What does this fold into?
Amino acid sequence: MAMSMASSHAVYKRLNDAIFAASDACRAAIEHHGGENVVNATIGVMMDENGNFSCLPTVEKVYRELPIDQIANYAPIIGIPEYRDLAIDLTFADNRPDGYFTAVATAGGTGAVHHAIMNYAEKGDGVLTSDWYWGTYKVICEEEGCRLSTFKLFDENNNFNIEDFRRSVEIAIDGQDSLLVIINSPANNPTGFALTNDDWDQVIDTLAQAASQGRRISLLVDIAYIDYAGEKNETRKFMQKFSGLPKNVLVMFAFSMSKSFTFYGQRTGALVAFSTDESVIQEFLRINKYSCRATWSNINRGAQTLMVKLCNDQTAYKQFLKEREDLYNMVEKRGELFMKDARECGLPALPYNGGFFLSIPTKNADKICDRLHEDLIFAVPLKLGIRIACCSMSMKKLEGVAKKIKKAYDEAGE
Ligand SMILES: Cc1ncc(COP(=O)(O)O)c(C=O)c1O
It folds into this structure.
């Protein structure tokens, strides 16, 4: 019999990650059939039209020119000061609400989500997010002794389901003194959906209402894919709406260099905080500094320095923005092609407004994805549907994929 040495709270841990399972199956198919014959719709990084990993050339150039001490030395616990300031600037662009701000460097956006859950959700409480969500939210909630509960992201017309959001917030705060809500928009993973500015008005109104009942409300906006969702101030306009929130509503943002700088493996992001009350921001800094020390001590100095150097060099920064715009246009074109094909063959894909992924709702995701393996198409089966990574598929590979999915979808008896 297998021996267990794990502590009682750790023994249950088992990562059941549909994404890694799907990409393992894909890797095996590539070995057997050759990469050129396999459609890999599982990878969450940007690949170019030749199937190679895309790192923005100016990011690579500036990084390779950094002196070794700027790469190898320790960084301050909460991050390099210029990096923290820039993380706030890049989060809001020209859309800062009126109030107080701060940021701590984190291990990617994942680290930001981790700290928000660790420090703003009570043990045993529910954390609320949409039913189409990035699975890691649940893993972190469970690791931190919380529960993840969900509201329906879409109504029957595939618009934001404000009714269900309102209802779910009410249910969640019944019996809780505080609530953490996580919203991943724009370019939601896994759907590519974005809340409109009107949706945001209603979300903010709902949270202010809950706060007026004496609850402490924290909102984490996960903006991991925001730079692949449209013009920078259009996609961030909703951020201005946080002005005037009561002091018992804290707004945080999960900022990440992974996608925005194509620097995924360098594990650098930030938890950015906004409040209309200065003492909430001072407390944020105090408790999150503690959590940084306790979790990873400090974050990759080279990546932070790269961001500072790049953004302070006008010529390099302009070039970088142009290169990123090209990547954004590339992924948009892929998404549009898939959506057009889906419409033509009657495959009911969810609304895609940008980002790395799009999704098809179905109860038969496992069955359909298994069937697609026969066509050497590998996608990720989720509880609510199938996730397609347009970030990693060339236009050529995308051709005909929607039709093949529709065939498997019909065969599965949808
Ligand atoms: C929705 C969402 N948020 C945050 C992240 C964080 O990524 P990272 O930790 O690499 O910055 C990801 C990465 O896949 C994501 O999909």
User: Anything to note?
Assistant: Residues 314-345 form the longest helix (32 residues).
